[in-house]
Amino acid sequence: MSSIETVGREHYPKEFGGILIGYYMEGQQQVIITGTLLPDDYRSSPSSFERGDKGLKERLKAVYEEEKPKIYVGEWHTHPNAAPIPSYTDLNALKEIVASDAVSIDHPIMLILGLDRKKCKPAFYVYMNKRTYSYENI
């Protein structure tokens, strides 16, 4: 978690994020996160983050080819000076991931880091059966 926190703090007080790499076990009932890819292009403010996709397709393909079975498993981003609770935009992003023809996962995860100057509070969410669940409620 510390490297994601470090990257998030480098962009504080603006939101920042990236994609999560890993693999699923037990028929997509368990996910192992092994790393992250950071975007080359993005737009951010203290209350929003929009990740671009410049170069990510090629980098994801390279990860998949070199480190099978590692694949895209979800997204992460920070919420500066706010709780790590998904916004309406965050919830829609999870729905869009499942609906995308370019993504072949049914249970994307989202990691949100609530950051302030002293603390970092992580929270994981997963989209299953057309609902978003916090990690604690699965």
Describe this structure in words.
The chain is of the alpha+beta class and 138 residues long. It has three helices and eight strands. It has helices at 2-11, 56-66, 88-99, and strands spanning 17-25, 30-37, 42-45, 48-51, 71-80, 109-115, 120-128, 131-134. The radius of gyration is 14 Å and the shape is globular. Keywords: Hydrolase, Metal-binding, Metalloprotease, Protease, Zinc.
The string of secondary-structure elements, in order, is HEEEEHEHEEE
Class inferred from helices and paired strands: alpha+beta
Strand order of the largest sheet: 2-1-5-6-7-8
Q: Span between N and C termini?
A: 21 Å
Low confidence ranges: none
- Morphology call: globular
How much strand?
35-45%
Features:
two-stranded antiparallel sheet, 3 helices, 40% strand, 24% helix, 138 residues, 8 strands, alpha+beta, globular
